[in-house]
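Lecture notes, unit on protein representations.

Consider one protein chain, 159 amino acids long.
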Amino acid sequence: MTAFPAPDAHPDHDPVDELAERICRLPDVFQLVAGPGTGAPELSWGDRFFFVGSERMRPFATIVVRNVPGFDERSDLDRPGVFRLNVELGRAEFRDLFGYGPEEFAAHQSEIDFAAPGRWFPHPVYAVQGWGSIVNPGAEVDGLLTHAHRRSAARARRG
């Protein structure tokens, strides 16, 4: 089992950078920061995508730093200092965490505050694919990041 590295306590660190550094210390993780030359749309520049191994086609986690108008605005990420961690949980972990499966997200989404910091919720757009999210996360993300990393590493080994 992969242990998640302990957070660094650097008061002068940007929390997005600090979280990204923690994720990158997991084994065989590659980070892509969207920007000029990456092929990413300008609205996603600054967002971070985390992959295991050479696959680099399907991230196990992302950090998003702004709204995408008309697509993903419910977490109100354009507020100062606000960002969101998204993690591929898989169907079983999604059900364990939220009490219903990804396929039931539509029936529950009106009950969710997608902008509340520090608590897990189904991803506003990708919940049906088993993704969960948290705005301005702390150490409570370690277990689920480790889970997603293990799933992605197993997928990379299978090819």
